């Protein structure tokens, strides 16, 4: 994806391609000269200087954002609720949904404001971080390029971690089917991972996004079908609401928070969606594309979580498809659908970190060796995700670890920190409310990161 985010002209009226963000290899200092401190605020309007080849309507932008936020993570919500309970799970999902939405708002709003400051039409996540540091308090400006590189690599590692989670789901789903039809088999988790390594190595060598994109549409159809089959089984034999505890020991809450954040966060695609809108001013605000989308996402995740938890209780697996009875045809179809959908999702997701890694390392390789280097790089990271999947035991624990460690930083801490740095010399609001609010969000994100990682590692060690 990242290479398709290229600009065709580096001017104040740049022509942006469909995905509409600046490539991370461009320094903010090369896009714009240093800003004058006393320039009239809002003299430059980024929205008016975007020339999009294929601008998206509000409806299409809503659909793109919804698709990016509604993925296989929704199938993990019943497992999240078993670490919270019914009432705590419902209100916890709503509160976390609001926090995640607000942090997305902070990222987009800060990006829009810093675009005005630096006089560029649009910026991606890493470029926004660089621009915020480059125009922030004087002592921080020297760190701007380093922060862009750090965020770039953090995003790459985060998505590779999600790819490892996909491999675990693939392995557990296939293992269930094989164990049902061939009960006396000697296949280990490592052997299952090796089975998937060959097709993964082949498909991850595809370097052109246009050859990968059709698989995304097919995967979305399969996910919808899987979701419908899961609802059929969940609602077929439905227990009463009071059959499950309203809350569970507080020590399990970090796993709930980490799983919900992992399932709900789509922080990496928010700016590309906003950057390609025909009317980007409709993205924020009330009702706004962001608020409408996230309201629907939170409701669907909450419904799936509570219904799945009421149905399966503490037996809820990391993906609800693993709870379905393999001996029944619809359930078997759902398991096959999720295997195909997750495999194709892996291929599409894998493309993004590879573009990030390549644009940060290609200067180290001679031009004539670029194709060979890319092939080796893709094979190496594909093998790393498979090894990680073979080393970690249970899906829901790895999801909680991934959400707590990576998504809490990129989705909660970084957006709050960006707004705080950007507003530091420009006004922190009445009674310094921006400072207080962002400090609370940063502390909360740090709490989620530390406690979520510790609890996830404890659970991984315990089950190992």
Automatic annotation (TrEMBL):
<feature type="transmembrane region" description="Helical">
    <location>
        <begin position="283"/>
        <end position="309"/>
    </location>
</feature>
<dbReference type="GO" id="GO:0015179">
    <property type="term" value="F:L-amino acid transmembrane transporter activity"/>
</dbReference>
<protein>
    <submittedName>
        <fullName>Proton-coupled amino acid transporter-like protein pathetic isoform X1</fullName>
    </submittedName>
</protein>
<feature type="transmembrane region" description="Helical">
    <location>
        <begin position="434"/>
        <end position="454"/>
    </location>
</feature>
<feature type="transmembrane region" description="Helical">
    <location>
        <begin position="149"/>
        <end position="169"/>
    </location>
</feature>
<keyword id="KW-0812">Transmembrane</keyword>
<dbReference type="Pfam" id="PF01490">
    <property type="entry name" value="Aa_trans"/>
</dbReference>
<feature type="transmembrane region" description="Helical">
    <location>
        <begin position="329"/>
        <end position="352"/>
    </location>
</feature>
<feature type="transmembrane region" description="Helical">
    <location>
        <begin position="189"/>
        <end position="206"/>
    </location>
</feature>
<feature type="domain" description="Amino acid transporter transmembrane">
    <location>
        <begin position="57"/>
        <end position="457"/>
    </location>
</feature>
<feature type="transmembrane region" description="Helical">
    <location>
        <begin position="218"/>
        <end position="241"/>
    </location>
</feature>
<keyword id="KW-1133">Transmembrane helix</keyword>
<keyword id="KW-0472">Membrane</keyword>
<feature type="transmembrane region" description="Helical">
    <location>
        <begin position="253"/>
        <end position="271"/>
    </location>
</feature>
<dbReference type="InterPro" id="IPR013057">
    <property type="entry name" value="AA_transpt_TM"/>
</dbReference>
<feature type="transmembrane region" description="Helical">
    <location>
        <begin position="372"/>
        <end position="392"/>
    </location>
</feature>
<feature type="transmembrane region" description="Helical">
    <location>
        <begin position="404"/>
        <end position="422"/>
    </location>
</feature>
<dbReference type="GO" id="GO:0005774">
    <property type="term" value="C:vacuolar membrane"/>
</dbReference>
<feature type="transmembrane region" description="Helical">
    <location>
        <begin position="87"/>
        <end position="108"/>
    </location>
</feature>
